[in-house]
Amino acid sequence: MAATPLYKVQELRIYNSITGQKEVFTPITEGNIGMYVCGPTVYSNVHLGNCRTFISFDLIYRYLKHLDYKIRYVRNITDAGHLENDADEGEDKVSKKARLEQLEPMEIVQRYTLDFHNILAKFNNIPPSIEPTATGHIVEQIEIIKTIIGNGFAYEANGSVYFDVKKFNETNNYGKLSGRNLEDMIANTRELAAQSDKKNAQDFALWKKAEPEHIMRWPSPWSDGFPGWHLECTVMSTKYLGEQFDIHGGGMDLKFPHHECEIAQGEAACGKTPVNYWMHANMLTLNGKKMSKSTGNIISPAEIFSGDNTVLGKAFSPTVARFFMLQAHYRSILDFSNDALEASEKGFYKLMDAIQALDMVSINKKTEGFDAINWTKECYQAMNDDFNSPILIAKLFEAVKFINTVKEEKASLSKVDHELIKKTMHDFVFDVLGLVNENEASSDISDKLSGTVELLINLRAEARANKDFATSDKIRDELLAIGIQLKDGREGTSFSLN
Ligand code: AMP
Ligand code: ZN
User: Fold this and answer.
1) 144-200, pLDDT tens digit by residue?
2) Domain range holding 473?
3) If you take atom 5 of ligand 1, which residue's CA is the nearest one?
4) Residue 494: pLDDT band by 50, 70, 90 thresholds?
5) Do 490 and 390 share a domain, yes or no?
6) Is 48 in the pocket of ligand 1 (CB under 6 A)?
7) The domain spanning residue 404 has which CATH number?
8) Which ligand lies nearest the alpha carbon of 260?
9) Are residues 268 and 298 both part of a single domain?
10) How far apart are the CA of 46 and the centre of ligand 2, in A?
11) pTM score, two decimals?
12) Binding site membership of 53 for ligand 1 (Cβ less than 6 Å)
């Protein structure tokens, strides 16, 4: 008999940004989840703030998987259509970088997509199931614009197409996600610039006619141009997850206008609201201010790993940085500091030491001083309560304390409880929090490296015995070239790393 999936016994509650409440999570199709998260605009290296949002959703993805849901996770790459200042005017962020660096826009896209993947892999994020690009979905974007025009919610002006927010608000509710009211928005805006083609300042571009110097352009029924920034997410989420899907996530700063516009586009095109649960991850700050590329108030992941930034006292590993972020709830603001990172590092190694100690403690007939069943239940309760990782981590440290007393032989642990604690620890620390035991990983690599060099030393000895000096010299010289020096002595050959 197949085991009961965990989602049947765990009741997960998610804070839904659109209702402002924690709600019991019920997917559209039992056992299956469709989740869309807005990905990066690939015109620069990711900063640690961006990483926090993607780590928050990695935690969420991992816990949903742990609950045995079958989940399709779609996260896009914005490679066109995102203009400077997140507005409808100005240069495309990717094209601008291409112009400044005298490269093709697609070279910029490739460079920063690779950087993004590389950094997220260092943080042990699991890649999404599908990672679609805006430029790969131009045809679908043109189609949906035709539908929205056909439904009366968009108009063409001078080769561009705009979403008619006022018209939409007559039958729908523009502002329901961000809690804004269209009348107030209109009252608070200055007059439209005379050259604007928009009927209302709140209208947003679905398609923009390209100026002659704009290089990222495609033919369409309205003009040679490019899609508006908000449209790609509507198109790619509904293409891969359906007109209505379970979870849509992104950073808090995307709530308005980006996600508000996605709701409007989805409703205008399909007559249904696209998303059941909206999830927003909070910001990483530095010196109390949002980390942001545009203000330069940033720390890069590379600086964390090398320690090469004046705010850092030393280098920190990716796992320690990940652990630091998970010690805050995803909906709380987290301020970055060297002290906080040092405290996380201490905590992280304490946790790893306790997990290692679990393999060495002595087992008794019964457990005293710890209720392992209830503790496991509380670990689940923490995550079921809107993915509360700081509470989970506090629970894990209750077990760390107990393991350490067992180690000192001041408490006893039964075989059954030992197995339960070990399983719960492994499930939450490695599968759900996605931490990596770096002690183990590095000693594993050095064991394998020594084995490989020993093998080469033996092959070289064989070659010399056969008077094949070409091969034996080649092995010695090429190892030296990568920093491994062989030393022939009376006891045989040894090696050292230069
Ligand atoms: P962008 O590439 O600017 O579109 O941003 C990619 C993602 O990073 C979005 O989901 C943003 O909300 C998120 N983000 C940007 N700055 C921060 C920050 N300081 N803290 C957390 N997330 C951020
Ligand atoms: Zn988006």
Assistant:
1) 999 999 999 999 999 999 999 999 999 999 999 999 999 899 888 876 665 689 999
2) 442-497
3) 40
4) confident
5) no
6) no
7) 1.10.730
8) 2
9) no
10) 16
11) 0.89
12) yes
